[in-house]
Fold:
Amino acid sequence: MYRAPTEDMQFLIDDVLDVGSVLGPLPHYADLGLGTELTTALLDEAGKFAADVVSPLRRVGDMHPARCSDAAVAIPPGYGEAIRQLGAGGWVGISAPQDQGGQGLPELFGTAACEMWNSADMAFALEPFLSAGAALAIAAHGNDELKATYLEKIYSGEWSGTMNLTESGAGSDLGPMKTRAERDGDHYRLFGQKIYITWGDHDATDNIIHLVLARLPDAPAGSRGISLFLVPKFLVGADGVLGARNDAYPVSVEHKLGIHGSPTCVMAYGDNGGALGYLVGEENQGLACMFTMMNEARLKVGLQGLGASEGAYQKAVAYARERVQGNVPIIEHADVKRMLLTMRALNEAMRALAYSEAVTMDLAHAGPAETRESSQRRIDLMIPVIKGWLTELGIEVTSLGVQVHGGMGYVEETGAAQYLRDVRITPIYEGTNGIQAADLLNRKLGRDNGAAMEAVQGEIRSLATRLQSDADSRLAAIGECLAAALADHVSTTQRLLAILPEDRFAALGGSFDYMMQTGYLFGGWQLARGAQVAAQVAAGGDRVTFCERKVATALFYMERLLPRARAHAGAIAVSGDSLTDFALDWL
Structure:
């Protein structure tokens, strides 16, 4: 059974990131009482819900997948009640503004809760994830009437939300989209079909609010001619009361490798006269509006990689303590210990990076006016790294979980394989990791000639320098490893920036390695931060065993995992024309 790693979470939030000092004084959060007491209360309550309510549903959802029949979806037993409890507890709108029905807490706490839901049951966690994202897009781009009608209901969990982008002929490139919208008085009528719509239909909430991309008859060609529409499952009257069923129905649910409990629907709009929709934002500006939701979603998908990895680690370490081979528990075997410590170190690196950048997101939204722009540039830079690196590691860590179980890991009854099957979607959706890597290099790095990256590299350099001169030999060793990895990263960054304007194909051919190199460096940076704080806390006689474990985990990462960054750097530094020159018809 999953148990949230609240001690590690609280250490990050209160000791390393010091949320009380960094965010507490900001006017946006001044009345919340940010600090250790609040952190403890929130993590404990979320942890109990994840363990007692959500975690038991993981195997239920896997064994009893969502089904579609007669244009209605049936979800696994227990899901509906758990979704309603989640909404009633205020968790859907934990980071949403209070005047929109949310709790008004920093994104950092929403990040911790999101990790817990995904560790407990990723299929379940997708429902509040999509709902919060839909509400965010409405809040950012909807008119006052849409906000007043829909936001509080979504953030309260009474209604849920979806995003509808993909069609059979329009995936990552939305230009060929065929779903159309026709003007009809003060609203629109939509016609078309969307695929891969996560939680597209169910009866767990009273209404489902679909955000649908469609094209107007006189729209420009390509992606510039796409608009965003709000299409409710049930129409909503002026008094807020639900009315007639809208012309939006599920056709089927996909039969997937994993996340079986999540209904991934084919949705049909307008088969019976047109689905009523309301414009969100301006006509032909739908992609810009949807990207508000998608950027948030990409960060949350990274947390899915972390969440599944933490669940897999807990199951693997419990099994390794019980399984006896050679007259000893297998946890005493060197290679099993290597696998478990690899899982643990990668999980802690992922968590530290994700939580650190959740604070950056909070500062971009609510920090001092003069620093918001730089914070936004930084979070924009971090989005593809967090989405890409965390989900790639999610596959590795969950696969290691299967390996620790040995043959029993290949047997579905143990539940080890489910983490791997569930997390395998994460490098694909919300923009494949190849797209994330290209975005990191071509847009985020290229748009300012590496200035935002250089600022982050400067922070890493300062930390490495301080650690190298530390009297604690372990911290000094961590600083040496970090400095070496940083030097490689600076060299790779400069090389790719030089190649990009001359040979874009060659530069993009190295973008995935660059994303992974960046992830390993950033993960090491965050673990080094934590190790420095942990050593200080332990020196004060507080939480000595926990803090010693933090330093030891960071040192293992530096010695055994950070060298992977150099391998990725080497692939870029020595690459010639082998990718470019290889004939396509040889593949």
About this structure: The mean pLDDT is 96. The longest strand covers residues 187-198. DSSP finds 20 helices and 14 strands in the chain.
